[in-house]
Amino acid sequence: MIKRLLVVESPGKVKKLSQILGSDWKVLASCGHIRELSNEGDDSLGFVMDGGNVRCNYVPRDQRAKETIQKLKSAVRQVDEVVLATDPDREGETIAWHLKETLGLREPKRVIYTEITASAVQSAIANPRKLDQNLIGAGLCRDCLDKLVGYKGSPLVWALNNGAKSVGRVQSATLHLICQRENEILTFVPQDYWSVWVDYAEGFRAFYKGTVDSAKDAADQETETHDDAKVGNSPETPESKRVLSEAEATRLVEEAQRHPHQVIHFEGKIVNRQPPPPFTTSSLQQAAGSKLRFAPDKTMIVAQKLYEAGLITYMRTDSVMLSPEFCASARKWLEQNDPQNVPQQVAKHRSSKSAQEAHEAIRPTDVFRPSVQLRSELPDDEFNLYVMIWKRSIASQCRAAQLRKTLVITQSGSLLWSARGQVIEFYGYARYWNNLSKDSILPSLQQGQALKLENAGHEQKQTQPPPRYSEPKLVQLMERKGIGRPSTYAPTVATLKKRNYVELKKDHLQPTALGLEVDAFLLKALPDLLEAEFTAKMEDALDAISEGKNSWQHYLTSWNQNYFVPALSKAKTVVASSSTGKANVITERKYETSKTRCPECKNFLAKIPSSKVKKKYFLKCTKGCENVVLFWSDFNKTWKPPRTKTVQAENQQKPPVKITTYPCPVCKKPLEEYSYIKEGQSKTMLRCSDPQSRKDNKHKDVAYFSTQKGWWSPKFGEILKT
Predict the structure, then answer these.
(1) Percentage helix, strand, coil for the chain under 3-state DSSP, each rounded to 5
(2) Rounded distance, CA 446 to CA 455, Å?
(3) Which among 113, 200, 208, 314 is annotated as catalytic?
């Protein structure tokens, strides 16, 4: 008999947890958040700030949430005990509080686990705790902050009348990073420079380094970092010290040809490259983006499925800590399969300051699980992401890689030349996570050795603008600047694309004309909200609330009174001053030009982005022909004006209704033949002849389509022709 109820967030976990807990338990899912702030009160905020207090009015999110609440209430009445097992983070704790409030639970038991395995779940059940009021406070504060900024700030951009939909606490700061980079690219002025080099008969190329009597350069130490957002392992193309004129480059080549060359410094040393840490949410999104070409939101969807299947630990984390049990298991795997890679001491990794150390990094739940078995069980995307997580976790427990790095400095006259080499002596962790550059071998040389010059030359180059951010690079930048938290990186990037503020072009994020307009306006109206440091301080404040160092109600009311109210007041004057030039703002927008000309003025039409049409844009004349708008026709394979239907034309096109002798399967009234046009072709179907009946839900499936055998309905089957 069922005595206990476990409530989780995701329905994907129910089956696995039910198998683990057995017949004494019933497992149900809340399907994420069941409540949200209502749209009542001032500015539809759903909460009221009264002095230093905040009163929130929460309502069910939608019809599905109402049904879920009723289902949960019914289940609560049938059991002796309710245990809340929502996700182990701030959002999960807040959802648990909403469940407590909605279901009328007095002191519910709260359990957390970071992997859906029998041992982890049973251990969590055996060690319940109370709800964490500090985490709940931070969750409620974030909820109110986001709605406050969104609902009070968004009307500012609506006034621009350019299609802008929203302003967001994290969203707008992230958009600003993308627009800043775009402005850097637009204002970039390229400069020519020359790279000067010499080739030696001994088999290597060296690059101009400077002169003997010039000031000693600071030691150019090579620093290698684990960059998960980087695509590929190719090293940067070596160059000389930049020479700013062709005449100077030619002079250096001529001097190199006049003087003998010899080695004045030869250095070879073994360098240890420590293994990378296991994955956090951010680094997982970066690596999946660069290696698997996953968008951040896709990475999280696939990781969620792996977590629900019990294959990996919880995928929203900023900690790089691993449990002692996993470390022991990984070490055992290495001892059995790769004993040379077992380190005396595992490399130490530091989490970010804000990381919750009670959480673990993302890792497999069972390092010994055969991948051959999983290959047949999992879709390709899930299998590939799992293997990537497995390899990174094992790599973090391996020995360091050993690289033999070589530096050669040669001299000809007063000129110095340098060359670098690298050979991998021991792969170590790179057997599983290879982020090492390929070997670049230099010959064995001795100090004072004379060299034979084979060739000398220079190559003209040009400085390049900074690149646009790829999605992995943007996530990396958001993490480094403290914009958002693990749970917000993916949805923020997805929202910017959905709002048509940015678009993905050749795997890089580029702001649209709309995005640039919104950012430029907010830079005048709410400049603080765009600054990464300002947004990061808000995240730090939420972290402080999570740790019990501050009252969430005090922080929210103070932030609103001391900053947001005055800032909004100032922003509204910017809106008022820009409203007179609103038309100019719109006409100045730069759209991509099509190859199709306006039928009236013969100018090329502009491509107007739109998510509502299949081609993602339509054509419009921006040169003054107001009524010229064209849409793509798949049927005609050409651009066509929208079809206009007058009532008279409609009546002329509609054939008379033909009533059949076939009865409606729901109300028994006769069916009628209904003609319509789909994708340019005329089609006919049978439907109920009563217009009022057709409006109710019972009739929604009453539709028979013409086949060779007769009329056929997906729900009611065939009506044979007589």
Answers:
(1) 40, 25, 40
(2) 21
(3) 314
